Automatic annotation (TrEMBL), chain A:
Residues 12-252 form the ABC transporter domain. GO terms for molecular function: ATP binding; ATP hydrolysis activity; transmembrane transporter activity. One of its GO terms (cellular component) is plasma membrane. The keyword Nucleotidyltransferase does not apply. It comes from Labedella populi. SUPFAM superfamilies: P-loop containing nucleoside triphosphate hydrolases. This is ABC transporter ATP-binding protein. Keywords: ATP-binding, Nucleotide-binding, Transport. The keyword Signal does not apply.
From TrEMBL, chain B:
It is found in: Cell membrane. It comes from Labedella populi. InterPro entries: ABC3_permease_C, Membrane_comp_ABC_pdt. This is ABC transporter permease. The chain crosses the membrane at residues 54-79, 106-130, 142-163, 200-222, 228-248, 285-305, 325-357, 384-404, 424-446.
Amino acid sequence: MTITTTEMGLAARVAGVSRRFGVGHGAVVALDDVSVGIRRGEFTAIMGPSGSGKSTLMHIMAGLDSSDGGNVWLGDTDITRLPDRELTLLRRRRIGFVFQSFNLVPTLDARSNILLPFDLDGRKPNVDESRWIESLVDTLGIAGRLTHRPHELSGGQQQRVAIARALATRPDLVFADEPTGNLDSRSGREVLTLLTEACSRFGQSIAMVTHDPIAASYADRILFLADGRIVDERPRSTPEEISALMLAMEATR
Amino acid sequence: MRMRWREYRATLLVAALSAAFGALLLQGTVLLTALVAGDAIGEKESVQVALSLVSVVFFAIAVYVGGIVTANTVGTVIAGRTRDIALLRLVGADARRLRAGIARDGILVGLAGAAIGIVVGIALMEALVLIGRSSGDLPADIPAVVTPMLVAPLVAVTVVTWLSSWVGSRRILAVTPLQASAAAVEPDAETIHSAVGRRIAAIVLIVTGALLLGGGVVMGLVTMLGVLVGMVGGILSFSGIVLAAPIVMPRVLRLVGKAMGSSPTARLAAENAVRNPARSSRATIGLVIGVTLVTMFAVATSSYYDMILRASEQYPEDYAGADETLAVTIGVFSVLFGFSAVIAAVGMVNTLSLSVLQRQRELGLLRALGFTAGQVRRMVLAEAAQMSVASVLFGVVLGTVYGWCGAQALLGSMLGGGLVAPSLPWFVLGGAVVAAAILAAASSVAPARRATRVTPVAALAVD
């Protein structure tokens, strides 16, 4: 009998995943036989220099990209060879996304952006979900901005709306791709604190891709990627420790 | 700045179509004049004059439509390449030089397209004459229809392509070098700052055009030349409406959008259609022009028919054989208006696919958030449907006005003419609506397929 992902205490898992871009001499190995799990209820940071494969790993875990080999699970669902439609529904219902460039739908106001995952399913949030979204909006401090379009909001406010959208469906896992990359340092700290709270208060599992040691220092667990492999793993660390580790990794390359 | 070949494809096609049309009209006029010269009605000089006038008017209209389509195509391409342009500006390129480069390309593409079009036009006419001869419909001794005059459409199409490339590329001047480094946030609203000047210019054009159009109708009661005044008025006022399109079209689109329901795909489509006034007016104006033309000629033909009918009741002996002329005229007219609609259709298809091409990132976001491929396809389709319905409504209204004015100006002076009420042939209008709907569906097929092929990852790249 095999142990399920859930029984391992994991929200998502990859086993022996490889990904190669291009063919022949120009081919780039983005992921090289990676096996790793994202623990449930934890805030995990995936760190590494540019080109280390961290974004590719996130894309594959989120069902946005397919792997050349290995298996991918979200919860207990093996999503490795799921057809496009199933993957789409999975993303809609069980995954949340926070992106570097906010990526709100420019034609919709903040409220419609938050409700988009429900809209796509052709339903309204039920009483319980509505209450949850209301409390999210309050916590995130965007209650007064719900009728604004994205271009009328500051970067920090847009990212808060994006976080509310990602958390609204209470997904199995939220993926955050450099969520502070386009923010000033104060807004960046606020966003990181909000993500940390979502994890500690609501038990939301979060996987964040970043190359910023300060951002990574908010995480419960830090995975280090280099040249398509997991090269190290640390519990919560200070920015200084993380920087030192990154520098050491650069030196040994 | 070099543009890619695919970005010139629509321009080349439009130039070729316009030139081929011009060549056919010119040769057709020569042929018909030679043919009717011997007939009884041929002696009525007015028929010959009307024939030449009609040719000139139709060619002017086709070239005008082609010019607007080209200007819009260039404008859409430039809007999609803001970052490239900004980068060139950043490393020191002069905006005016860049723009002159685009206009220069316009001459070359226009010349190439026009040359192809003229050759095709000559070949088509030759084929028609051969068929006519062998079937005995045409006498064996008809003169050569290829004339040195064919240089005229070549020059006209080239010049118009050049001018419209120049007009369409004006946005280059507004691109700042900073836009090269700005985070890829959708530049909201293609700037409002030219709105006041645009509004004033539009109002001046519309008012002047309307006055001339009215003058043409009044003059038309006395002389056929009223149609020339009317044509100038029509072109001016329609240019004004085209200029005002970014202000007018979003309102029409919004109305139609409300009627499309409230599913997320319909809502997003409705919002997409009006999010960027400049882009949506560029996409719709082609179809507006097409439908306006179709309706205009339908109304004109039908009003003409009413006039002839009334006149032949009053003066039966003067209108002996008019039925024949009428049948030929209506046939010729339908081919003629169909042609401008084809040119407009090229514009619509091109703009919609370019606008989808420019929205890869957003489509990818929707896919990442859980839009199924089917929902994306329906969204693009709903967008096209909304645009075509709005354009058809607007076009039918405009076409009715212009058609009636045209018929009055050209034919009000004929024996037993005078003023008639505008006549709306319902079957033609119905046909226009159906054709527009089919066009919208067909034009959304390719973009929809491309939209569903967008992978979430490609669209989420930071750049």
